[in-house]
Amino acid sequence: MRKKVCSRVMSVATARWLVGPTPFPLVVSCPYKNAVMKPFHSSVDVRMSGEHPSVEITGGARERFLPSVTQLSRPYKPFPLVAWNCHVETIFAAFFRTTPDVKLRRECLRTDDDGSVALDWVSGDERRLPRDAPLVILLPGLTGGSEDSYVRHMLVRAATKAWRVVVFNSRGCGDSPVTTPQFYSASFLGDMRQVVSHVSARYPDANLYAVGWSLGANILVRYLGHQSHNSPLSGAVSLCNPFNLVLSDQDFRKGFNKIYDKALSKALRNIFHKHALLFQDIGGQYNIPLVANAKSVREFDDGLTRVSFGFNSVDEYYFNSSSSDSIKHVQTPLLCIQAANDPIAPSRGIPRQDIKENPNCLLVVTSKGGHLGWVAGDEAPLGAPWTDPLVIDFLQYLETEAAKAPQTGSDPGDNKQTLHHLQV
């Protein structure tokens, strides 16, 4: 039974994961039919009342935030068969998870360097929600956008709680227009700053939050670290964050992970080919033939990304773009959720000590979950990821605390500053 499930999922679904509707021609047999899952042991020695031992929970904000996420008092039970292997769970979630049908309204935002990003808002929110409704910005993973199932599920769950939601589609992602010879990267925070500033100016009475997945989570955490006390966000959630891109790159080129590498490099090539004319006469260190035929994400980054953002080598780009060094500077309430068996965001890259020492951070690590999987919980196997209720409970708690914060002035920003000082 396991062999049939594994063969079917891996052979058909792998490249649809973050690649789009065109499948990557691939047939893979399953080498994991005799795999035995090892028991998960938490690195936390002292547990609070109500915390279940099936998850690892740590962080400097543990005592403060743990009571707000009641889901963690119940055991983490991955769905049988699907979750027996991290690759099966990762691919199953990408291919078989339902994608909610939501009408979106697109806004194209021109950036300071004449680039463009696309903001997808839930259609009708302007009429339904008050101006001070809490607002959450969603940041998808590499090549991802508002059409991805994990993004849609979070969008729907937040919307049902009367939250305003906007999906931040980076340059070239989610059919976002590309108007300059520059895409986005793990290192570049300019677009993130401008999007947050734009959204904040449009809804000055609302508290702002953000949720990021994978590379989007890496960008989000780096943004929080760089902005530190100056971030207008009242809270954030990071999921499947690779944290250490050097380690992720090493693992990406090993074993079955090469399949993900090929699928994602194909997605990057597709984005590039749509806008190849912008790079036709570009010179310098760019290696356009390498980019156009990139067989790996590393080749794409070496030929284009690291040059666009001023790095001498792809290794220098990965080292300086990792969010692991940003955690110590984060002053915004931050929930990080990881899976111990994530094949793309390795567990050993999680900056556990910095998270433990930061009074604003809470880390939750599940024993299984794969990458963007978490096929568990009440809606498994085809519904929303196990993480979604956890994320919303955390954000709702922060919003409730914001409402309790005393008003210190007529400027709506004063309320956010007061809450920030109370939390830190």
From TrEMBL:
Active site: S214, D342, H371
Keyword Nucleotide-binding: no
Region of interest: Disordered: 404-424
Cited InterPro entries: AB_hydrolase_1, AB_hydrolase_4_CS, AB_hydrolase_4_sf, AB_hydrolase_fold, ABHD4
Domain AB hydrolase-1 stretches: 134-372
Highest rank taxon of the organism: Eukaryota
GO molecular function terms listed in the Swiss-Prot or TrEMBL record: monoacylglycerol lipase activity; short-chain carboxylesterase activity
Keywords of the record: Hydrolase, Serine esterase
Keyword Ribosomal protein: no
PROSITE patterns found in the cross-reference section: PROKAR_LIPOPROTEIN, UPF0017
Stated family: Belongs to the AB hydrolase superfamily. AB hydrolase 4 family.
Protein name, per record: AB hydrolase-1 domain-containing protein
Source lineage: Eukaryota, Viridiplantae, Streptophyta, Embryophyta, Tracheophyta
